[in-house]
Amino acid sequence: xxxxxxxxxxxADSFHLGNYLGALRQWVAMQDTHDAxxxxxxxxxxxxxxxxxxxxRRTKVAAAQLLAMGVDPDRATVFVQSHxxxxxxxxxxxxxxxxxxxxxxxxxxKDKSSKQGxxxxxxGLFTYPVLQAADxxxxxxxxxxxxxxxxxxxxxxxxxxxELTRTLAGRFNHxxxxxxxxxxxxxxxxxAKITDLQEPTAKMSKSASSPQGIVDVLEDPGxxxxxxxxxxxxxxxxxxxxxxxKAGVTNLxxxxxxxxxxxxxxxxxxxxxSGYGQFKKDLAQVVLDTFTPIRERTLRLLDDxxxxxxxxxxxxxxxxxxxxxxxxxxxxxxxxxxRGR
Length: 341
Ligand code: TYM
Prior knowledge:
Catalyzes the attachment of tryptophan to tRNA(Trp). The protein is an alpha/beta fold. It is built from 13 helices and five strands. The protein has helices at about 15-30, 40-45, 50-70, 85-95, 100-105, 105-120, 125-135, 160-175, 220-230, 245-260, 265-270, 275-305, 305-335, and strands spanning about 5-10, 35-40, 75-80, 150-155, 185. The chain starts with a strand and ends in a 7-residue tail after the last helix. β1, α1 and β2 (about 35-40) form a beta-alpha-beta unit. Helices cover about 55% and strands about 5% of the residues. α3 (about 50-70) crosses α12 and α4 runs parallel beside α13 (about 305-335). It is globular and about 75 Å long. It has a five-stranded parallel sheet with strand order 3-2-1-4-5, with helices on both faces. Ligand 1 binds next to β1, α1 and α7.
């Protein structure tokens, strides 16, 4: 089976619509056809200032949401990054193969560090993409003519980090011998960049969007409906797809189309002449129908924390088995002396 690895940060009280359409929906779909590893990346979450109690809660809520969305701990390996210390260890090795300038060209780093200011920008934020490369490559199948693929379902904003991961895999292989398969980004065609409801040219983002611009998976139905009704649309009244002139309506059409599985052309035809109001009202219902059951299941999963912790411990065990084996090979190839038995 091909492998799939992906991660999500526990940096908000809820995942949002962009996470869901850009990545998480694919996680669920791919677990049936792949050997799947899905990770709540708490090490990444501390690259910006955080509160320990909040991080602990968000990590559990994140795991519960993944399960509630349909990630099945029997079919997929679901785990917390800090439970598998090899992630940090491989990141160190890969960091020593990464150029300072190369890391400095990462646009997410440039965006985040310019927002934090130099005093608030940690070295961890700078090396964030190297840790991400380690996450992925730890789960690389062994290379060879029949090696299975290594696929990474993510949104458009992760494309550059995936390119760096491929570069580092190639560089390691070149210097130390074939060890990693080059991972392939799996970026959905139509939902790779869901935009902010209030600022439809900017990405919907936990860190940058205003609360009115984000649709949270765990949001109560009332406020969720209101946000969609109040989403910025454009001058005119026609429901048509036009990225340049109608960024707001275009974003809503993409969301609607992805959630309902209807083509944009069919939606345009359905709402021809009916104006924005009816369109948004129906879209709000589609979003609610998708997220209400997920919210309810998440809350139920959080009621039994012991069970959740058991599931995560089980996932960590399965992930460790793979990560430990990869790291043994890496240590040997790099030239570290084995510890013996
Ligand atoms: P994170 O936690 O910021 O986001 C999780 C996933 O959601 C996608 N995404 C979006 N997709 C479409 N439209 C949007 N507005 C939108 N906002 C977010 C992201 O592309 C991502 O797929 N660096 C990663 C976490 C990570 C990771 C990894 C991912 C760490 N290690 C290894 C893959 C493999 C991140 O910041 O995700």
